[in-house]
Amino acid sequence: ENVSEDLILNMDEVSNRFIFDPMMDLLRKSRYFHRLNGADHIFLFADGQGPRIWDSYDLLRSSAVFLSPESRCPTWGEPLRRYVDVKHCLSSWKDLVIPGHTDYARIQYMKRHNKRSAERRLLLTFHGRAPLIHEAYGDCAVR
């Protein structure tokens, strides 16, 4: 059976009702959140839809840290959609993009090239998946 477009759009309303509205209510009442204006709070998004669906995320974006497997969000239902299909929804100076999936071949490659902490130049780096960019990505596949 086909899922109606109305049902898909209503999922945004369900997310607001059961996730984001209760969370905003909790944050409004939290003395811990207001102590540093949310700068000591971390929000984890399972995908790039989180910031798109959460219509109030701009209230927290300037101070709280966001973790997400995607740095861009779709512009569905926004006036901006006329010009671009995705927009930046994370801050490059404080938020972290974490890989959503690292396949077995890539894990083996990273293990072979692992260095002791004292030998590393970087604290953190992104190991994304993009076949044909480098020979190490040639075996990338999703199980």
Can you describe this structure?
The chain is an alpha/beta fold. It is 34% helix and 10% strand. A three-stranded parallel β-sheet has the order 1-2-5, with no helix packed on it. The longest helix is centred in the N-terminal third of the chain and has 25 residues, at 5-29. The radius of gyration is 19 Å and the shape is globular. The model has no long low-confidence stretch (mean pLDDT 77).
Structural class: alpha/beta
Cross-sheet strand order for the largest sheet: 1-2-5
User: What is the N-to-C order of secondary-structure elements (H for helix, E for strand)?
Assistant: HHEHHEEEEH
Q: Output the number of helix runs.
A: 5
Strand content: 5-15%
Report the sheet with the most strands, covering strand number, pairing sense and barrel closure. Answer: 3 strands, parallel
Radius of gyration: 19 Å
Helical percentage: 25-40%
Task: List low-pLDDT spans.
Answer: none
Mean pLDDT equals 77
Shape: globular
Structure summary, number of beta strands: 5
Measured between the Cα atoms of the first and last residue, the distance is: 26 Å
SSE diagram, text form:
Blueprint: H1 5-29, H2 31-35, E1 42-44, H3 49-53, H4 58-61, E2 65-68, E3 72-74, E4 86-88, E5 96-97, H5 104-112
Parallel strand pairs: 1-2, 2-5
Antiparallel strand pairs: 3-4
